[in-house]
Design a protein that fits this description.
Blueprint: H1 5-28, E1 39-45, H2 52-63, E2 68-72, E3 79-84, H3 89-103, E4 115-117, H4 122-147, H5 153-177, H6 184-207, H7 209-213
Antiparallel strand pairs: 1-3, 1-4, 2-3
Length: 214
């Protein structure tokens, strides 16, 4: 299949983006959410309603420029989980003092357990989503083989595979270059895009079946 001048320029642009993404990964690696990097965390049960923004402000004062993620733990809004890149003894003391001052609690440095959370590998994040993706893909491909049996299937599947790989590689490169953290939600979106492309290509083939067959 010959490409027009515009399509050639577009393809070249996508290839350059992919190459740039590969370079960024080689130099800086993949950026993942704090929860999937090695980090430290503490749980604080205050036993009274917590304003999550107050805890975030306290963490900004205590940890300065460190990346911090604060999440509520209970339905009753009385406990929080604080995740931070690392925590020094001084920062731990300041955190305890400021929380006690804000909520009238009696936490001590000794009563606060700091948990060290190991780094999670990218493949471990992706693995839970692979089986559903494979099942859906097999179902759609099986439908294509049955529905479009009069078309040379290797050519049809090869084309859609190339399109999906090009799209996913481009999106992955953009995410890498922009240093967007990889999260399960982001992985779900990328898988959804791949399935959507497959479905749209099936729809396109349905509408142009006679032309493609001939």
């Amino acid at each position: 299949m010959k490409l027009s001048g515009t399509k050639k320029i577009l393809l070249l642009g996508l290839i350059l983006i992919i190459i740039a993404g590969i370079v960024v990964v080689a130099l800086k690696g993949v950026n993942v959410s704090l929860l999937y990097e090695q980090h430290e965390s503490v749980n604080l049960v205050v036993s009274k309603e917590i304003n999550i923004n107050d805890i975030k402000d306290i963490c900004k004062e205590v940890f300065n420029n460190k990346e911090v993620l604060v999440r509520k733990l209970e339905l009753f809004d009385d406990a929080v989980n604080i995740n931070v890149e690392s925590m020094t003894d001084e920062e731990k003391q300041n955190l305890v003092a400021k929380v006690n001052e804000k909520y009238g609690t009696e936490f001590t440095v000794e009563s606060i357990n700091v948990n060290v959370n190991p780094k999670v590998r990218i493949r471990d994040i992706v693995r839970p989503y692979l089986i559903p993706l494979v099942i859906v893909t097999i179902a759609i491909v099986a439908y294509m083989i049955i529905r479009f049996r009069k078309i040379k299937m290797s050519k049809l599947l090869g084309k859609i595979l190339a399109i999906i790989l090009l799209t996913e590689a481009t999106v992955t490169s953009i995410i890498t270059i922009a240093r967007i953290p990889v999260t399960p939600t982001l992985i779900n979106v990328m898988f959804a895009v791949a399935i959507l492309e497959l479905v749209l290509y099936v729809d396109y083939t349905e509408k142009n079946y006679k032309t493609i067959k001939d």
